[in-house]
Amino acid sequence: MLGAGLAAPRSLRAQEAFPSRTIEVVTHAGVGGGTDITARMMMVQAPGVFKQEFLVVNRTAGSGAQALQYLASKPADGHAIILVTQTHLLTQLRNPSLPQFADLIPVARATADPQLVLVRRDSPFRTPQDLVEAGKQRSLRFGGTHVGGVDHVTIFAFGRAAGIQRPTLVPFRGGGEIVINLVGGNIDTAVVNPGEAEAQLRAGELRPLISLAEGRLDAFRDVPTAKELGIDVTGYTLRGFCVLKGTPEDRVAKLEAGLIEAMSGPIYKSYLQNTGQAPDSVAGRQVWGAQLEQFHKDGREALQALGLLRG
Amino acid sequence: MRAARNPNPAIAAAVAAVAAAAFAGTFWFDAVPEGLPGLGAVDFPRLVCVLLFGLAALLALKQGNPSSEEEAPRIDRGAWLIFGACLLFLPAMEIAGIWGAIPLFLVFTGTIWGEVPLRTLVLNAIGLTAALWLVFVRVFQLTLPSGWLGAAFGY
Amino acid sequence: MEAFLGGLAILLDPYVMLMVLLGTVLGIFVGALPGISGSTTIALLLPMTIAMGPIPAICFLGAIYCAANFGGSITAIMVNAPGDPSASATALEGYKMAEKGQAGLALGMSAVSSAIGGIFSVVVLIFAAPMLARAAYSFGPPEYFALALFGLSMCAAIGGDSAIKNLIAAAFGLLLATVGMDLTTGVERFTFGSYELSDGIGFVPVLIGLFAVGEMLDQAARRVGKAKIIHLDAARVPGWAEFKKCNRSIWIGSGIGTFIGALPALGATTAALIGYNETRRWSKHKHEFGKGSIEGVAGPEAANNAAVGGSMVPTLALGIPGSATTAIILAALIVQGVRPGPHLFNEQPTLLYAVFASMLAANMFYLFMGLYMAKLFARISLIPPAILWPAVFVLSIIGAYGPNQSMGDVVIMLVAGVVGFLFRRTGFSPAPLIMGLVLGGMVEETLKQSLIIFGDDVTGFLGRPIALALFAVTATGLLWPVVSRLLRVARAARA
Q1: Interfacial C residues in 63-122 facing B (CB < 8 Å)
Q2: How many whole angstroms separate alpha carbon B67 and alpha carbon B70?
Q3: Are strands A80-85 and A23-27 parallel, antiparallel or unpaired?
Q4: Does B67 touch chain C (CB under 8 A)?
Q5: pLDDT of C231-287, one tens digit each?
Q6: Distance CA A200, CA C314 (A)
Q7: Fold entry, domain A116-211
Q8: Architecture of the A2-113+237-305 domain
Q9: For chain B, which has fewer Cβ within 10 Å, the N-terminal or C-terminal residue?
């Protein structure tokens, strides 16, 4: 991209020790949003590892669009890293003028929060089979975030893999509202992170039917995964770091090692544990890159099928 | 008395113009994807526009009170200068950064406002800028625009 | 009871007490600054509180939250710049009072009614949180739609010099609320391809523009000629007489604020606006409204601080945040290893009561500080306008830019400033516009969600008793003045 091209001579010049100045962490979340908190938790121990200050830059507009633009406006020298979520990938797909997925280098994963398919306590769906059978008879009402958002893609992929009628998305403003409407009986089911519905799961007001994780979750040993049921779909809320393409390889490696070290410290570990996220959330660029690649593909297919891709 | 006429028709015309522009704007929205249930994207805004039209018509028919000199004094040259300074704040921020633009603005508008000696204005501008910088940048660590000058100094 | 005493005992720990005091002072300060809200501060301080341990950390953050809502009223009253969106209703009457030279009265009444509202809501929280929280589950999109209509139905009556102008301003607010990506279709509306607009028009820049910048431009236009007369009693704080006058408003505000705050989808700003409406509706001095009514300060201030305790209800009892700020407090609790939910009331009652006790303490602290400092703050009106108003403008710029670090927000603020200026000169009031903007998005969204849930069948509303009851209240409120006039005419004719 343009930013990378302009910055090339500067990054060649900068052969001295890296990092040489404050590292900016760009996020699309407002101060206090879930992703913002992830960034700030990582940053508690990062300055000690890198011997440099860290600064969160919140660029909230356009579901990640502005954050991507901000990143592209910075030299590709590793001093600006972006906290990427699946939202960014969908925004890129829908806006070809933005820096695309191919313009980013994955560095390290920060969180991978699996999702569960939940129903309320007195729901007629007692088993996963009940849900799938009913879904073949009529379109199920799924709660989720906005049309064309990450939940929409996951729900669409779930519906297709399970061979049910295309689910009806009832869009809400966030996880809390989805949980309330699920308990209140306004929707049939929803795909939710366990942390968001922790109180309701513990009180037995909501029941998990299917887990969208790769393997069985420790906290939900007896909840079958979709894959076990022959529904080939996974659902995670992913957050992780990327840098702009053109960043020198040695710096990417240094960032990867350093960020993983910072996120292996006690503060970040206890943050993961207390928010009910898997301790193996932190992963290197191999795993993280592959996962982003997969979602990029799924997202494109889903948006195309839903008629949400322009041009 | 210049202001002694019914101002309502003019206000109503402005309201109707905004409603018309917004109504026209709804025709440029992207199409709603196939197969989504519920109301579309254009229905509600169009309803509000129609409502605005109706209200504008009612307002035009009503006799309004002309605004008196006390309620809305004439805008003099100094006021226009201050308005201009407010508008110029944005480009000034782009060039000199927010910490350059603030003291300039404080002294400039303060001078036009009058009654306060220039020396006090300058001292106040310096003190206030320093205090704001301390609070927002040092304590709360907000990143505020540093402008081209700021960028040149490596911020 | 034992747990409650245990909670109080925790508060006697000097370290915890110090944290509450510190949180209160910080909260008033950031609340008063436009651009840094309580929620921003809490988010920025969150990583720092990890080392404190759960109880001091939660007490500290809770105190900031309580005090910031009060702090917002200081700048709202003194320079018409609501330091926090929830203080916008306070600015409507409070700034008019300051112009009349009653800044001290307004500030003092704000402190008193804020504290009463805050304490009322914490008491409700202590006794009825789990019960009240269940109500959240009964409120789905159809019920919120009915509630939002109720809020909007009062638009014609508030502010401005004619009902038609008020309705026009409200409709503009509704139109503004449609800007951005439509939740239920994903379509971008009125964004002109700008990413800055796709998340919609934020309250903060519009509020700061309409109130503070609009006022600054107006002051610039009337700078020559009649200088503002400053009354000597600017520093007088309210006494028993004022308190008695506002008694009813405070209780109305406290009740409405607690209930609205407890609904997860509605926050302190809505609570304050509806509190303002209802205060006016039930006031015996309706004619004072719009000209600096002390009841118009007491009602919304009680409401927005009661909403603080109210929004802690779903946060603590359901683990679902009741506002942007409680979302961060929830994150803070979770990071500390506290998992909110119904079980919290049985498993960790001491911690819970420590939170309640610290909120009570914070409310007391800012009551005394507020009353004491009212005299001091009231002297802001003695600052020469040539220094005051340019400084307000500068603060407004930072305030609009700060939360999202977006130049687009600054532009929106300037445009809103021009609109606010024109409003002042043509007899429009910003109040209905703000009602429209705050509730407009909700009216449209909840209507569309309801229709999706009902399968495009409007008659689905008939199966929702709470929504029907709210529709009935709205209709009664709208029709009652007409009916009562008819009755009076009929009675006069008979006599």
Answers
A1: none
A2: 8
A3: parallel
A4: yes
A5: 545 567 778 888 888 889 999 999 999 998 888 878 888 899 889 988 888 888 888
A6: 12
A7: D-Maltodextrin-Binding Protein; domain 2 (3.40.190)
A8: 3-Layer(aba) Sandwich (3.40)
A9: N
